[in-house]
Design goal:
homodimer; 255 residues; mainly alpha; Multidrug-efflux Transporter Regulator, Chain: A, Domain 2; 2 domains; three-stranded antiparallel β-sheet; 14 helices; 69% helix; 4% strand; DNA-binding
DNA sequence: CCTTGACCTTGACGTAACGTCAACCTTTAC
DNA sequence: GTAAAGGTTGACGTTACGTCAAGGTCAAGG
């Protein structure tokens, strides 16, 4: 028994284009090729195709499928690995759904879709750059979920706390005191405590997950200097440098 | 306040490439362009960017985001629509995970990854072609989950039932009787009952979800004729035609 | 023999949202 | 003056095919 490309496509429940693709990438060659170039497939090719489609439906990629069929990899191993990925995806989706639900509620409740206020108190803790990536990919997501899970009054309180911290820093910097001074170190302590209240950050995890709160804090300090947004929040670049040095000293001594 | 492309990228937690992309597709233009072609972004552009990134993190596509930002669409509406899609995805993932788990069990239990036996009794009920697509996209998935959820003995029983049905059809066709005859109609009835035992099909749903079991059965009859695999199962094309006509008559009278 | 229609071929572009060079120009800093 | 850092515009790669486009092959009918 032998079938043309359209015929097995129908039999197996796929398309001729897919068959040609599998031929191109070497995943499934036709069992015979006519003098005219036509592809013909036998029973054994059909069985292989069924296996391919089964694995594909389970979500495996074509390269992985090729490995499994070539016995370069055990099916159970590949499937187990894939299962982990699927479960991660499910988690991600669940969190995303929760986020969307909260956002819908907020928007329907009249809140403006992320108004300017957020820029003042929140986003500079939300700094998704190389430092954050170094300290965990989902830190941003967690922090974001936390922020949007808060009520308006909570947000206001948080914002004011952040602004008070910022203005205190500015005052200290302009007073010309040293980063080693008790006043500056007291501010640094407040700053770190404040950071600890943001879920998803190494500061909040308190070093439990292996990332260093010390490096995190000093890294943040570097960012404050490197980025003009922080400069604005802490009284210009000079202020940011003061904050950075104060934090660094504090981290060295206390973290 | 005004920032270069790298600067807002850092501030907002994204990359300069992304910003250039958004410029290219018109999603976010820089607020000013230098004589040298450099892109510069203002505070308002930053706010827009934050909104974009928020919506993107919620999983919305860039075109949808553009609509929301242009106020061509309410945010709540877009988010609600998106929520539906997310929930569908979650369902799909859950089923896929279940399927993978069962398959792992089966494979570890020593079962061969979809051996030839399946081709005999099962796969022709599994016909994922234009008819199946007409009757629901997840019919295939449901049927597949059902099949792989069965134990070896159940599979054997099913296979034998299918083969008995096939051989009875062949015998009737070769006897030269009419599709209207009582014998043929009795076989058609058995055939339909058999179809009803396959979850995910219109026959199993019994017309509850709005798709017609009648059209489904006659459509299957047409497939039996159109495809050589069925011919093999029902005693050649002549046999398949007999089956088709018998089913059609039965469907007209009883469904 | 010729036409028509169905089926086959290879080749190439499009998909979503950028990452990643490549080649080249501008600004900044020492 | 020069090197480092950062800017620009292409253009290709990513996944698994869908979808033309242009043209060759085959069976059936007039």
């Amino acid at each position: 028994m032998e079938w043309s490309i359209q015929e097995i496509a129908k039999i197996a429940g796929t398309t001729s284009r897919t068959l040609r693709h599998y031929d191109d990438i070497g995943l499934l060659k036709p069992s015979r090729t006519g003098h005219n170039g036509y592809r013909y497939y036998s029973q054994s090719a059909l069985v292989q195709l069924q296996r391919i489609l089964l694995l594909r439906q389970l979500g495996l990629g074509l390269p992985v499928i090729a490995q499994v069929l070539d016995r370069e990899q055990e099916a159970a191993v590949a499937l187990n690995g894939h299962l982990g990925w699927l479960e991660q995806e499910q988690n991600r989706l669940a969190r995303q759904i929760a986020s969307v639900r909260r956002t819908i509620k907020a928007v329907e409740g009249g809140e403006n879709l992320m108004a300017e206020e957020i820029l003042d108190g929140f986003d500079h803790t939300h700094y998704k750059d190389e430092v954050e990536e170094r300290w965990g990919k989902d830190a941003y997501a967690k922090g974001d979920a936390w922020w949007r899970g808060m009520g308006p009054d909570e947000k206001l309180a948080w914002k004011q706390r952040a602004q008070k911290l910022g203005s205190d820093w500015i005052a200290a910097a302009e007073a010309g005191i040293s980063p080693d001074s008790a006043t500056a170190q007291e501010l640094a302590k407040r700053h770190v405590e404040w950071l600890k209240d943001i879920p998803g950050t190494p500061a909040a995890a308190n070093g439990e997950n292996g990332v260093g709160i010390k490096e995190y804090v000093t890294g943040l300090g570097d960012m404050y200097v490197a980025d003009p947004r922080f400069g604005a929040n802490y009284g210009g670049t000079a202020g940011a440098i003061f904050v950075r040095d104060s934090l660094r000293t504090y981290a060295e001594l206390n973290l």
